[in-house]
Design goal:
The structure is a homodimer of 428-residue chains. Chain A is an alpha+beta fold and 428 residues long. In chain A, 40% of the residues lie in helices and 20% in strands. Chain A has helices at residues 16-35, 50-55, 58-61, 82-92, 135-151, 166-176, 181-189, 196-206, 210-217, 225-236, 282-286, 302-311, 313-327, 341-353, 367-376, 411-419; strands spanning 39-40, 46-48, 65-68, 74-77, 100-109, 121-130, 159-165, 243-245, 259-265, 272-278, 295-301, 331-335, 358-359, 381-385, 392-396, 402-405. In chain A, the strands form three sheets. The first copy, chain A, has an eight-stranded mixed β-sheet. In chain A, strands 13-12-14-15-16 form a five-stranded mixed β-sheet, sandwiched between helices.
């Protein structure tokens, strides 16, 4: 029986405490993206499988959550958001002035073995700029990624953005006579994560060596104009300290065509918090060449960033303070005399109409139990409606200070005023 | 090719203009629910099929989006949120003081023929109270539904809540010797929507007649104590005018066990905007009787309510005003001299760090094109960075009024102050 109460493997239930953590990230993502002039869009959860098979090949397609619907359609639960974005923009780009700056926060699905930080269902924030080929678009996205990290309380030293350019590697391949560029990039992508012999064998198969690759990475002479332009742009914004150029970053997906970047946890160096890059050919591939639109974007999932916040005391403190504020009930109406329940209901209704978060006991209960419920709700104030109504008692929950509200006082206006101020001298 | 750019049948793409409409509803739902002391939760999109087959029977199971995953699991894209909620609460109820007041906003899926107002993928708001058997919990939910409608700009006369009680019909069945209560309630549910002969045949099959049913509906003597209690509670809150008791409402799903209600569009009488009721046995069914928890809840989808807003001028005006505010860019930084781009980037960065929604041209462009882009972005102010930097020009976009900011002025502080005020005398 216990099993029937669990979600499917790799899926999560978000009861209110966990949901509030997720919402913390959603709101930060959305707030910073709006400040940057990005507009929110949303794509369907289910897409035709052709959209992904056409596009990303390799890594993603082996992890697709794929099924036939009742009508026999080959369907997929989206593994990421970029393909849907490219599909929507390809169809509707004439409706919007360029460049498009769009973001999405949505659920994605991968059928892989569930493990820490890798689940079958997860949230992803995606931000993209379409219609602008210059490195200024890439810099705008990297600045957005940095400011999201800062909004979450991270500071210089907590994380680093590693910036690279696939076109530098295209130059390397041309010079070395490497023709299997995809295979070569896969090997470079795994440089830090695979045994050295395995990488060497992979690279030799494409016609080069680890030594040549390492030599190329360590020579700043191979940095492209795009990399220099992004760096200057970020320096002008005062964000230069967060970025380093590192050609060993190439990103796994086949569709990247130029600048790529990843945000790394500086403390543990190898954990990637966000990543993305330029995909100038994807819209053209989806439209069989009918519409071309340069594009660049990045994504950040909810799992790794949540781990990182938990491990970083100053970021965690900020999240906990936010959660505490969100959970707070502003006024709990205590009904000390059931005969006055109708008057209490009217008060509850008026407080809520004024925008005040208000709760009260649905069932009759002893007054001390009601105060306990007010405590559970993290109420700031309790208003006691008793036999002395229309006189009301007001209690500051934190200090237990109690006062009377005279019958000629408007309790809603009084509470609005009190809520806008600190809890008062007894708290200080 | 055109087809490859469309979503699957019954699915929607939300480009930013449509997404903003959806967000309007999400924010209203979330804001009013929080004010009522409800906490947000979120369940997985994919659930084991057994959860739905066990629970709802009949109507829903024929419309399930059902598939086998790669591991051979019998999976379902959730058709509604109540089953997942009951599953989560059954497993974790000991972690939370009762009653639970939880809400969720999420996507649901039904495999049915797509038509106006009925899609394969839609959003649903769900609010539930668990652990409180008294009609006060039902009244709290109905008040929440009414206040959501009012938050959206609807007023008395635009909509009506019809309230009923399945226990009244249980009494009718007992008196009439009707044993197939589910079949009987299905017939009553379709009373207004099916040809009279068909209903009569259905009712006769269960051992009663349309005449007996109509007689029962029209006799207030059959109103239960629960109905009276809910009505008194809502009257005490000042919400009595929005509710009428109507026993012809029974709701389609098999799991309802007591009070049920629907919110109807008053103008077109038959269109249901929201609905729900008490389901006191569901948690016990899911746990094979191990855990019982009285429960009541309701749901509102995004499709019908959006139609209703569009058809109701005062509600539509409120939504449009909100959308306009949301779309506004606060400051657009115009770069009149590319040599000053680094200074402009620094200004953009500082404005955004102060929480100001700021945009700028990613690529060099003529000044009049930049002002056009500022207009598209609905910018309130443009700041012109030109060769006279550090002197800046400030332009009020609506009035075209222009002024200079002296080099010793802090432009961020100045703009924060201006944004907090109306646009100034030239606008009046």
């Amino acid at each position: 029986m216990a099993n029937a109460l669990q979600p499917l493997p790799g899926f999560r239930d978000f009861a209110p405490p966990e949901r509030l953590v997720a919402r913390y990230f959603f709101e930060a993502w959305s707030r910073v993206a709006s400040r940057y002039g990005f507009s929110e869009f949303e794509a369907p959860i289910v897409e035709g499988a052709a959209l992904y098979l056409k596009k990303s090949g390799g890594e993603l397609s082996s992890q697709l959550f794929r099924f036939a619907d009742q009508g026999g359609r080959d369907c997929v639960l989206r593994p990421e958001l970029t393909a849907s974005l490219a599909r929507i923009v390809a169809g509707r780009q004439r409706d919007f002035p360029k460049p498009l700056k769009w973001f999405e926060i949505g659920r994605c699905f991968r059928y892989e073995k569930p493990q820490r930080g890798r689940l079958r269902e997860f949230y992803q924030f995606n931000a993209d700029v379409l219609g602008e080929p210059s490195p200024a678009a890439d810099a705008e996205l990297i600045a957005l990624a940095i400011d999201i990290m800062r909004e979450l309380g991270f500071v210089a030293g907590d994380f680093v953005v590693r910036l690279s350019d696939r076109r530098a590697w295209q130059g390397f391949c041309d010079a070395q006579g490497v023709t299997d560029v995809d295979g070569f990039l896969q090997a470079v992508d795994k440089l830090d994560r695979e045994p050295a012999e395995k990488t060497e064998a992979r690279l030799r198969a494409t016609g080069t060596t680890t030594e040549a690759v390492q030599g190329f990475i360590s020579d700043p002479g191979h940095h492209t104009g795009g990399l220099a332009a992004v760096r200057s742009d970020l320096e002008a914004r005062g964000l230069g300290d967060f970025v380093e150029i590192d050609l060993s970053v190439v990103r796994g997906l086949a569709y990247y065509s130029g600048l790529v970047f990843e945000v790394f946890d500086a403390g543990r160096a190898l954990r990637s918090v966000a990543g993305g890059g330029r995909y100038d050919n994807l819209v053209a591939v989806l439209t069989d060449g009918a519409t071309g639109l340069p594009a660049t974007g990045f994504a950040m999932g909810d799992c790794v960033i949540a781990e990182l916040v938990n491990e970083t005391p100053h970021a965690l403190a900020r999240m906990q303070a936010w959660r505490q504020r969100q959970r707070t009930c502003e006024v709990y109406v205590v009904i000390a005399d059931e005969g006055q329940r109708p008057a209490a209901m009217r008060l509850v209704s008026d407080l809520r109409a004024a925008g005040i978060r208000t709760d009260f006991p649905l069932a009759p209960a002893r007054v001390n139990r009601q105060f306990k419920a007010a405590g559970h709700a993290l109420a700031r104030f309790a208003v006691v409606v008793g036999s002395e109504f229309p006189e009301l008692k007001l209690k500051v929950m934190a200090s237990r200070h109690e006062e009377s509200l005279a019958p000629n006082t408007d309790p809603v206006a009084c509470l609005q005023q009190r809520l806008a101020q600190p809890d008062g001298p007894l708290l200080a």
